[in-house]
Amino acid sequence: MNAVISPTLAREGEADFGFHELFFSRTDTRGVILSGNEVFRRVSGYGWNDLLGAPHKVVRHPDTPRGMFRILWNALGNGNPMGGYVKNRARNGEYYWVFAVLLPAPGGFLSVRMKPSTPLFARVREVYAELSQRERTERLDPDQGAKALRDFAASEGFSSYTSFMASAMGQELAARDAKLGRLTDVRTTQLIALNTSLEEVSREQRNLLRSFEALQSVPNNMRIIASRLEPSGGPVSAISENYRSSSQVISERLRSFVAGQDNLCDRVSRQASKALFLIGAYRVLSEMRRNFDDAMPVPGIDWAHERQMLTEIEAQAQRDTGTAMEQAIAHAEVLGRASAEIRRQMLGLDTIRVLGRVETGRMRGTNSHLSATIDQLDVSHSDIRLRLETIMRLSEGIGTTMRMFQRTQRGA
């Protein structure tokens, strides 16, 4: 059993509950409540007769953007887990915030919710307040609200909303452990570190593509300079044409795993984020199932059935985690090989760049613009090499960390 922790001081109008408490509810596919635990009933302020058979939106607070629920329902409808910060409203008008972990369940969905407390939670509250106001005044529909939230996640440096929520879950689990005086859970620590590495490699890939795109103007500049310095078809013209054709090949290769739908970068992120989210979900599911052992009888709720269902969902979450991790590891290995291939192709560009530098030296006194262009290439090539090396290092690290994670999970 959990030790009883004194609840934190609530804000005015806030229904308070302790960090040791977890909410649980299960609904059918329409969102009608089929089951719940005493924490849910007590904090919501409703009786069981009011909750069972009622739509879950009975506790919805208008300050939670409709776009948030669109993201949740889209994920669950596609059979995927999802999480989110949710502001709910009790029967007496008080409010309470939770971080909700939602998963598909037989015949519907289930949610386990905990008390949030991280700096990220404070940031999300601000974003929600602004977005819910926009939804009302600008009449944004749920899809527009969902896009605004995804844009916010992207502005925070995340490649997907799932990755954003995986990071949020890791932070909230770690903060909750600290609040309850628990030892740091190694899986949660690994979850946070792995998600950070995943987002770092995504940022490096996007920046790498931008660096290459910026180089596309260089051959044109060199041709313009060549037309002023030499006859048509001279060495600078040939160098600029060779650089153009070689850089285009590399740029197209980059786009194939950084840009466009279902690119390699997205596949790594999607599978890794799913695995990370499921690992966090497994923790709260396990704790919730143990709490059912002390549950008081409630007419209409079969606790033995709820425990069995959670056991099966935990087992499925473990299997899905393993599958997602294997796929993410495979994609990360391909990503590392692709980066190494581009680095080899960069050697050809470096050779062309050196030829340009040699030609600059030969044309002393008439080449200030050409020299500046080659200087630009020196800087850009150095930046690209560093980014490629970072991507290769991070891709290898992601694969290694995930294998360690798998061993930790099997040991647990």
Task: Describe, in plain words, how this protein is organized in 3D.
This protein is α+β, with helices and mostly antiparallel strands and about 400 residues long. It has two domains: about 25-180, Beta-Lactamase (2-Layer Sandwich), CATH 3.30.450.20; about 185-410, no CATH class. The protein is built from twelve helices and five strands. Strands 2-1-5-4-3 form a five-stranded antiparallel sheet, sandwiched between helices.
SSE topology sketch:
Layout (H helix, E strand, L loop, with lengths): L22 E6 L4 E4 L1 H7 L3 H4 L14 H12 L4 E8 L5 E11 L2 E7 L4 H19 L4 H14 L5 H19 L6 H30 L2 H12 L5 H24 L5 H28 L11 H60 L5 H44 L1
Helix pairs in contact: 3-5, 4-5, 6-7, 6-10, 7-9, 7-10, 7-12, 8-9, 8-12, 9-11, 10-11, 11-12
Briefly note the structural class of the backbone: alpha+beta
What string, H for helix and E for strand, traces the elements in order? EEHHHEEEHHHHHHHHH
Low-confidence stretches: 1-9
Strand order of the largest sheet: 2-1-5-4-3
**If helices are DSSP runs of H or I spanning 4 or more residues, what is the number of helices?**
12
Pfam families: PAS_3
Keywords: Receptor
InterPro entries: PAS, PAS-like_dom_sf, PAS_fold_3
Protein name: Aerotaxis receptor
Quick summary of this structure?
The chain is of the alpha+beta class. The chain has helices at residues 38-44, 48-51, 66-77, 119-137, 142-155, 161-179, 186-215, 218-229, 235-258, 264-291, 303-362, 368-411, and strands at 23-28, 33-36, 82-89, 95-105, 108-114.
